[in-house]
Design goal:
By secondary structure, the protein is mainly beta. The protein contains 1 helix and 18 strands. This is Phenol degradation protein meta.
Length: about 290
Amino acid sequence: MKNKIYALMLLSGIATHVCATENGLDSFALGAEGIAAGALPPPGVYLLNYYQNYHASEFKDGPDNFHVDVNAFIPRLVWMTPQQIAGGQLGFYAAQPLVNLRLNAMGASDSNSGLGDLVMGTMLGWHKGNHHSIAGLEGVFATGDYDNANPQRPVIANLGKNYHTIRPVLAYSYLQPQGWEFSTKLSYSFNTENDDTNYQSGDYFAGDYAIGYQLNDQVKLALEGYVFKQTTDDDVNGVSIGNKGQALAFGPAIQYKQDNWSLEAKFLKETEVEHRPEGHSTTLKMVWAF
């Protein structure tokens, strides 16, 4: 009975990889951060542009004949103020994904393009020598395109999740000016219920990591990746159905930087996956300081 319920819920649609534990996906941008993830910049306005392609042709513990391909462009505007609270520099940010999604599952298919769910947050950053840290709180709001499945459309490529997420975030970086780096960004996500499906996605832990070495003033090489671990069961109509997802990913990355901009590229392959798609992603991240 549990597997039957899960299959029915899967066919109610699918959210993007970069924008739910419902449908085996989530709203944490897995693998988006890496190099210098815990180091906030000086006061000013910054534009971060992310491009991510995610491809998976298998859904672990899920439906057969599965294929998903996601292309997402995510501009993120960051405002670092001169204000300090508890010795930390205060900042704000907002990100709006633009997504192209193609989905096939159990003999049905769909595609969609448009806006995903809006992300907004605030953060504090501290610096002490080579040590840098961040504490933040962000919300993911159900603003993206969403439609519930029906007999005429058993699979729907939804760009939004149709529920909200609140997420505390911690990040840390150890940065040697010329040498080694260790960075990580950790979070824990609390999800509201999808009112259209009565599906309550479980809470989950997620984090990005990077171990890098500065070759010269412009170039840094790194091993990057992410971990995802769901800590509570999914519920349908208040009944627990399990489906705790997990994943581990790793791969090479390179960063090139100049005075007021930087470009980071990475390729990450997933392994140890349960109750989620298993695939790989290619990510480009460009930071521009105004």
